[in-house]
Amino acid sequence: MTTDDTTPSPDGAAPAEQAARGLSRRGLLGLAGGGAAALGLAATAGFAGGRAQAATSAPAAPARPGTYAFTGEHQAGIVTPAQDRMHLAAFDLTTTSREDLVELLRTWTAMAARLTQGLAAGPFGPASGPYDAPPDDTGEVLDLPPAGLTITFAFGRSLFVGTPAPDGTPGVDRFGLADRLPAALVELPRFAQDALEPQRCDGDLVVQACADDPQVAVHAIRNLSRAAFGTATLRWSQLGYGRTSSTSTTQTTPRNLFGFKDGTANLKAEDPEALAEHVWVQAADAEAGRAETGADSAWLTGGTYLVARRIRMTIETWDRTSLREQEALIGRTKGEGAPLSGGTEFSEPDLEATGRGGLPLVATDSHVRLAHPSTNGGVRMLRRGYNFTDGNDALGRLDAGLFFLAFVRDPRTHYIPMQSTLSRQDALMEYLRHTGSGLYAVPPGVPDGAEPGEAFVGQALFT
Ligand SMILES: C=CC1=C(C)c2cc3[nH]c(cc4nc(cc5[nH]c(cc1n2)c(C)c5CCC(=O)O)C(CCC(=O)O)=C4C)c(C)c3C=C
Ligand SMILES: [Fe+2]
């Protein structure tokens, strides 16, 4: 199959709805015990046998309620209709062994394939298996439905070339991967007004877990972290709620913590041509990269790049700003989300339109004008961010904002120039502080029908 993440389950209901009324893992384990078809997708991905495992010869079954396929051309969790909750974790490897790294990716792949299909992290589950050993699943989602869980893996630049020392001494290529570094996996420049906290930046490996239930997303990261014990440690993580983008035309546009609709002009899953142009890395990109740096990044074809920015919003100041000023800063109306040049939510902004005194209706320093493709050489991105609220600071201000996530084909053309412009000219910057940052290469999906036990995410990087 191709990863058509938007494919609804057989009864045609959206996964979120199905999850809401869906089967619990207990039910799925029962199904798994009773019928191989119930595990068709895990079986096609080829995972080790176990009590709750299907026969690998079983034909692929349609997705079960509340689940998205784990295997496919692209990883799930990118064009998948954005779920309501997210837990993203960045890890640093504590090993320098390439074999250990491959073993971790194999283990994570098998575990993610099980978890996304509503199964326990391991074959025994939380309440079974050897009595004198810790259970192979932590147990907190045993009675919960799969909640549309997706797990997406990505690699940081440091995986390939290590981390340079503050004095500029180059990092160390611990895994023999430097000649596979994609040309576009650059170190992000320091942008104007960046206030980055190093403990919220970078990382060798990143895992994004999204689900419609926070406990399901957190459980996934917890169990993957547990499996990484002795090989990788958690560097930083971020919880998110209330998606701030739609990634499918089937979704309504959500709102960010400024109270504005966010995601109106986003790229959508139903526009494969635009996704090919702006999101998926193409074979030609590896050829261009090889000519540029000599490195072979063909392994990334069909993948993408993930930009993560933790953006704190000074909402107390924002909340004392007039509606007129708020709308001028964004360039859209607060109620409907229509451009200030007129029309309705999905009308194209008319950046030439002027009003009283000949002034542009969409202000020259407004966010929407500066982020619009016509201001950025035609580039677009797939935004998939979340709101966050992480307590408060010593002055009693909420530490809240937008965890900006975007998937792009080449960050050098599709993110860095836009962020450069926004950081210097966007009037909204007065209310924002970028406190965390990362750029990661997202390998393509684990192919359907791969040999049992053989396939793992990012495999082509190691062959
Ligand atoms: C570098 C890219 C972007 C950052 C960082 C960013 C932060 C950010 N955005 C909002 C609120 C809105 N953004 C909207 C549109 C929009 N934003 C970006 C890029 C970044 N935003 C793009 C490419 C676009 C689309 C522009 C277009 O094609 O018209 C909107 C309008 C609604 C929408 O189209 O989504 C809002 C609202 C905040 C609050 C924020 C940082 C906290
Ligand atoms: Fe934006």
From TrEMBL:
A GO term, aspect molecular function: heme binding
Location of the Dyp-type peroxidase C-terminal domain: 253-446
Required cofactor names: heme b
PROSITE patterns, sorted: DYP_PEROXIDASE (PS51404), TAT (PS51318)
SUPFAM superfamilies xref list: Dimeric alpha+beta barrel
Compartmental location: Cell envelope
Annotated region (Disordered), positions in chain: 1-20
Primary localization class, coarse: other
Cofactor detail note: Binds 1 heme b (iron(II)-protoporphyrin IX) group non-covalently per subunit.
Biological process, per Gene Ontology: iron import into cell
Residue ranges of domain Dyp-type peroxidase N-terminal in the record: 75-241
GO cellular component, one term: cytosol
Family to which this protein belongs: Belongs to the DyP-type peroxidase family.
Protein name: Deferrochelatase
Lineage: Bacteria, Bacillati, Actinomycetota, Actinomycetes, Micrococcales
